[in-house]
């Protein structure tokens, strides 16, 4: 019988904090439901005091989800805690996650304070949170660089104040696995009452060691791993859920397991990547496009003879179904609905009709529709709610001539047109859109990717547009890359022109 490791998913809080990954409430509910189906124990749904949007998302996720604990982040500030408790009022299993920086860097430079004062504030925050909910998790921010003796004092004090879970974040991704494992062991050996709480790891990947640190922390006694889908998160990201889950599945000798239904991993990975506009690197462990692709002849031969000669995980175990039905223009609505379901998206009624219409249009241009296309179609259907839409686009371009674009926009039902030239078709289209929108805006980043292979493929465009010093992210996908670029530009504009 394995020891149970609780999976705490923070894709919707630490992951969503990344510039460009912001989701609206509807999208967050979609991800939360997929996380519930995946089998996570805790969903960190947001930081309610940080914005009305975050507050609302915690409220709506609390209503939409049944089994997992719903957690809301706060600082060690009474108003944060009050607001978090209010946002959690519909949660069946609410948890407040409060805490404060405990490393000398945080104490001196962030708080201009002393160790004793920080300890007092930590205890005060936990005691205050206990007035609202039973389940209170405490985080010692930058625990990775906190002196172990002082960390143990803080942890012991907050346990006495009623904390049920103690989170030990390696906020800066600094620790070595041996060091992080020793930190967890030090707390187990030196803190009175530690056996009554769950210890959590929360590792960042700045040195590429987030998974190694998490695994070592768990081997040394932590029983909650804080993770994100695809390892998304600030800077180099957080520990990735799929890596931790599959490490313990693959190393049964460690005697630790989770409640995760691993066959849903690939679906949710693609869903999060698509909704958050965060491509997964092809060689990413478990969920990268090449994670199970064998190109060398020796490997292919070995795998054909016996899969285990070169593969430690059966791709089917993480939801890669090589025999899955390929969707084509002849596929029906039911096949599309099923594929969306496998990818964690539930559509029905008019929403499914719209997605199916878009599917048929794409299938006319592209012989086979893959999972990325299906996710794009689901995203396009959400985009139909945008206030500004591309009505038409005509571009003439070639070698030795100026590119000229004429563009039509539909802004809340009103039609506008403009024409402009540029040093290429994308530049011309963007200049024409700028004539209509008349705001100061600058394209800062522009990335075009083909989703698959072949010249008939769909191109994805990621774009960052700066307006009033703030970056806004736009995304689109289209078989015409000039159209995809114009649409991505308009998608970004929709985020600041309300
Ligand atoms: O990395 C970190 O320290 C965090 C805490 C707020 C838990 O995300
Ligand atoms: Zn973090």
From TrEMBL:
It catalyses: 3-methyl-2-oxobutanoate + acetyl-CoA + H2O = (2S)-2-isopropylmalate + CoA + H(+). GO terms for cellular component: cytoplasm. CDD domains: DRE_TIM_IPMS. Residues 5-266 form the Pyruvate carboxyltransferase domain. It comes from the Bacteria. The lineage of its organism: Bacteria, Pseudomonadati, Bacteroidota, Bacteroidia, Bacteroidales. This is 2-isopropylmalate synthase. Homodimer. The gene is leuA. Belongs to the alpha-IPM synthase/homocitrate synthase family. LeuA type 1 subfamily. Its cofactor is Mn(2+). Mn(2+) binds at residues 14, 202, 204, 238. Keywords: Amino-acid biosynthesis, Branched-chain amino acid biosynthesis, Cytoplasm, Leucine biosynthesis, Manganese, Metal-binding, Transferase. Gene3D superfamilies: 1.10.238.260, 3.30.160.270, Aldolase class I. GO terms for biological process: L-leucine biosynthetic process. Catalyzes the condensation of the acetyl group of acetyl-CoA with 3-methyl-2-oxobutanoate (2-ketoisovalerate) to form 3-carboxy-3-hydroxy-4-methylpentanoate (2-isopropylmalate). Its EC number is 2.3.3.13. It is an enzyme of class 2 (transferase). GO terms for molecular function: 2-isopropylmalate synthase activity; acetyl-CoA C-acetyltransferase activity; manganese ion binding. InterPro entries: 2-IPM_HCS-like (IPR050073), 2-isopropylmalate_synth_dimer (IPR013709), AIPM/Hcit_synth_CS (IPR002034), Aldolase_TIM (IPR013785), LeuA/HCS_post-cat (IPR054691), LeuA_allosteric_dom_sf (IPR036230), LeuA_bact_synth (IPR005671), PYR_CT (IPR000891). It comes from Duncaniella muris. Pathway: Amino-acid biosynthesis; L-leucine biosynthesis; L-leucine from 3-methyl-2-oxobutanoate: step 1/4. Residues 389-498 are annotated as: Regulatory domain.
